[in-house]
Every structure is written in structure tokens, then in C-alpha cells.
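To whoever picks this up:

The parser on our side crashed when reading a file containing two proteins. I've narrowed it down to the boundary between the first structure block and the second sequence. Both blocks are reproduced below exactly, byte for byte. First block:
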Amino acid sequence: MLAVTLISETFTRRELQRAVKVAAALGVKHLVVKSDELDYRPFIRNNPDRCYHCKYLRLSRLKKIARDKGYQVVAEGSNLDDNTDHRPGMMAVRRLDVKSPLQQAGLTKAEVRQISKMWGLPTWNAPSQSCLATRIPYGQPITPRRLQRIAEAEELLLNLGFTQVRVRDHGDIARIEVLPQQVAELISNKEYICRHFEAIGYTYVTVDLNGFSSGSMNKAINQNRDGEK
């Protein structure tokens, strides 16, 4: 087995450190490779099919690495819950014949966590994470500067002790999502947070009162899709 981590500006240093640590703990060979989706115009245009272009680019790289190193199968980690949201990247998974063993086993995210805990895996309760590009509304271009300030803003919140965070980048506006039970704590730190967010480059700092919601940038797409049914 070979674990491969593709890194770019869409990937945080914290995630890379976790990947290196987990691979070492499991005794799995680990390869870190630079990805180049920010040189790919269909990705940086950030249309609703952005994830397809990113996934196709990255999985094509993994397929080549597998061929060059003599591996027969490329696997990725989507679970059954990923079928309930807007996931154009799954089209790339199917097109390139990449395997999704957790989906094939019919496992939800909660079941994956339960089994991981039973097996003593250190990531069983790791916060949900996704590409930093998912913080930028569709139709607004993805730039290194926007990704950098999102990464800095989220790192600041994590260092304050918030366990699940998203900073949605709406141009001059930062919309913060934390767990609902941590919203009051977030507001109690508003002076510190606003001061640092303004230094990072945001003019306005807001809080989403609904709290953290995975895939919240897909709400408009899902609402339109439901309206067409």
C-alpha cells in the first residue's frame, strides 16, 4: 500500500501534518506530491462543476503514480453520505475507475467513525475537513490570496479552541461557521477575532447563526435541484 497526499494552496499545513503523522503511525509508505489545480482555468473559474475538474486532475495524477510504481488499484475515501449532496467530483471517480471502498461497503460517515474508534485509529473523531476552495462562492474566482487568508483565519479560530470551523469568503466579508454550541463563545471573543480578521484582509466579519454546516455553499444548488423535482 502507498498513501499519497497531493498538496497545494487549497490544502492546509495542519492537514499535511496530520497525514504524515497517521501514515507513520500505521507504518504505511507515504508520498507527498505538489498538485497544480491553480494553474488549471476550469478550476479557478469556480463554476458549480469545479470539484469535477479538481478531482479529475488529482485522480489522473494518482493513476499515473500507481502505474509508474506498479500498483493495481487507486482508492479514495468517499462514504455513503457523500451521495446526498452536490458532489460533481464523484463523476471523475467513476470516469477514472477509482475505487470507493467505504461507499461499496455501504458505510456512512458515522459508521466510519464508529469502526475507526473500535480499531483505535487516531482520526476517528477528527473534524470534518474539505478543500479551502469550498469556502468561496461559486462564480467568484479562486486565487492564492483568497485561499491564504481563509487558511490564516481558520487557523486563528482553531488555535482559540474552536473544534469545527469554516470561514466563508464573500469578498470583503468573512462569514464564520462554528458548532452551534460554540457560537456564544465565538461572539465573546469578537474584538480579538475582528482585529485579526481585519489584519488578514477582511473588512467585515460576520457569524452564521445556523452554525457549522458542511457544504453550505451548495444550498442554492440543492434548492434549485429540489425545485425542479
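<<boundary where parser fails>>
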Amino acid sequence: MTAAQRTATPWLPMAATAVLWGSAFTAIQVALPDYSPAAIALLRIAITVLLLLPCLALGRIGRLRRGDALRMAAFGLTGMTAYQVLLCTGERSVDAGTAAMLIAASPVFTTVLGMAFLGDRPGGRGLTGLGLALGGALLVAVTSGGGSGSAAGALTVLAAAATQAISFALQKPLLKRYSGAECVFYGSLFGLVPLLAAAPGAVGQVAAADGHRTAAVLWLGLGCTATAFWTWSRTLRATTASTASLVLYAVPVAALVLDAVLLGNVPAPTAVLGGLLVLGGVGVASVRRRAAAPERVAAVSAVSAGRVPAGAGSR
């Protein structure tokens, strides 16, 4: 990416990505009483595939190269299947705003990837930031409602954050050869396969569900997946990974506001404090790491929505 290409910050797609991914947490919460986590993930991915089929028919989605099939499959299984099932499962006992704050801790996992595979050293400031982020995540987890169910849900959401970081690291090289729509389409196809076993149950749940809960599932596919991954890909193509990481700070805020306005959920003050520690810790570590080696860090996971070094979520 040239210096000229980096001058114009794509604020509109960045803001759109933050709001769309932030709304996913609330939409999941709305859908869960009538839908299982597997059914939500299946329907969300299936809707995305159906929406993109016309693009395939019109030739706007190219063919997947055989050499990229394995990486694309890994991206789909982690980012489409595992992330969504884990997040939906966690939100059974954790409210949407709290889940968003926990997902914001995914930079911790991205940093671990950098240390493991790129020999990255976060340094004293980076380790301090990561410590703050971890402490904040733990504070959010223990104040998310109490009880073993909430604790288990918080840990499940953190597991979703880990799979998110992995999936975005897998996707980054693919974006050099494929458009955002192509990555979403083929990743969704691969991600759909292990969820097909849940299809009979999902059909029954659609028939029995309230209309507004089914509408939430439709929004997850239309807005939070297909549209959001497209706006996120545009963000990454238009700016540096360091600038794109600003989306990280907006996603939890959007989720908290939507959760409070639409569902009336207001997190405990200590949970909000934990969320601020997560974002503050990520910011501290990010400043140090961007100054040290921005492009090298970007190679780890330039597509991550909420990570320490260089990228901003899913959602």
C-alpha cells in the first residue's frame, strides 16, 4: 500500500462496520429464546450464501483456486462456524453488551499468534497493556451477572474471541487474491458444512419462532455478516491495519448502546470498568507495537475486529 493510498481514512465503512458488528450481539440475544446457537449459526451463514449467489451467477465472484481451498476452509470453519456457535452459546447467559466487551479482548490472542509464529516481542509496554486487557476481561467475566452459568458463558465468549483472531489471521493473505465478497462466500460455504446436521431442528424452530426473533436471524445474515464483512474488507483495502484497528473501540460502544436502547440491558458499573480496562490495555499495547513494527504485526492478523497490533469484530 502506497503512502497516497493511506492518506484518506475510510471513516464511513469503518463506522458502518462497527455498528453492524455491534448490532450482532443484540440480534443474537433477541433470537436466542426461540433458536439454538447451532440453528442461528446455520441460518445466518445460509442467508449469507443465498444473498451472494447472484454475485456468483453474474461473475462477480470468481472461482476459488485449488491452492487456496485449505486456507479458505480453515477461515470458514473458524470465523463462520466456531466463532458464531461459541458466541451464541455464550450469550445464553451473558448479555449482549458484556459479550461485546469480552470479544474486544481478542487482541490478546492475536498477540499470542504473533509471538508464536512471527517471533514478535510485545516489550514492556505491550505486556503491560495485555495484562490490563486480561484483567479487564476477567473483571467483566466475574461481574456479568454472577453464577456458574454466567461464568461459563463468559469463558465461552472468550473462546469465540480466540477463534475470531485466528480466522482473521487466516483471511488476510486471501484478501490479496479475493474480494471481500469472495472471502465471505467461500468461507460461508465451508462453514456451512458442519452445521448441516442442525438443519432439521432449524426448520422446526423457524416454524415455531416469533416473527421478531426470526427477523433478528435474518438481520444477522443480511447486515451483520454479508454487509459487515464487505465494509470491513473495504476498510482494510483502503487504509493501514493500524488505522483500521480503531473499529475495535467502536464495536463494544455500539453494542452497549443498542443493548441498552433495544433490550434495556445496562451492565454493572464494574463490568463497564472492566470493558474500559480491556480497551485501554489494547490501546497501550497497540501504540507500542505499531511504533515497533506495524507491517510485520499486520501480517499476523490485519483483519481482526479487536486486536492489539493492527486491526479492528464480529462479530
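After patching the parser it read the second block fine. The two ends are 26 Å apart (CA to CA). Confidence is low (pLDDT under 50) at residues 1-7, 288-314.
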